[in-house]
Amino acid sequence: MQQKVQKVQQEQHVQRAPKKKRKRNIRWTIGEKMVFVSFFAFALYSSVTIVSNQFTIYHVNKEVQQLQTSIEEQEKRNRDLYVQVQELSTYERILAKAKELGLTLNENNVKVVQD
C-alpha cells in the first residue's frame, strides 16, 4: 500500500511541476499575407479618400459662403440704386429739371402714362 501511496505522491509531484511553455512560431501563408496587405492598403486608401473628400467639401462650402456674401452685398447695392431711381424720378424733380433747362409745361401736349 505504501508503494501505491508513493506512486500517487510521485504522480502528484510530477503533475505539480511547472510545464515549460513553448513559443509557437506562427507561420503565415502567402495568401494570408496578401489578404492582410490588401486589407491595410484598402484601409489606407479609404482614409485618404475620406480626408480628401472632406477637404474638398470644406473648400466648396467656403466658396459658397463667399458667393452668398457677395450676392447679399450686390442685392444691397441694387436696393440702394432702386431707392435712388425712385427719388430721381419724382414728378417734382423732373419738372424742376425741365424748367432749369428752359423747357415749359404745355398742358395740351401732356400724355398720362400709367404703369
TrEMBL record:
Keywords (A to Z) from UniProt: Cell cycle, Cell division, Cell membrane, Coiled coil, Membrane, Transmembrane, Transmembrane helix
Region annotation (Disordered) ranges: 1-23
Comp. bias regions, Low complexity: 1-12
Tagged with keyword Transmembrane helix: yes
Coiled coil (residue ranges): 57-84
Domain of life: Bacteria
GO BP of this protein: FtsZ-dependent cytokinesis
GO cellular component, one term: cell division site
Membrane protein topology class: Single-pass type II membrane protein
Transmembrane intervals: 26-45
InterPro entries: Cell_div_FtsL, FtsL/DivIC
Protein location: Cell membrane
Similarity annotation: Belongs to the FtsL family.
Protein function: Essential cell division protein.
Name the UniProt record assigns to this protein: Cell division protein FtsL
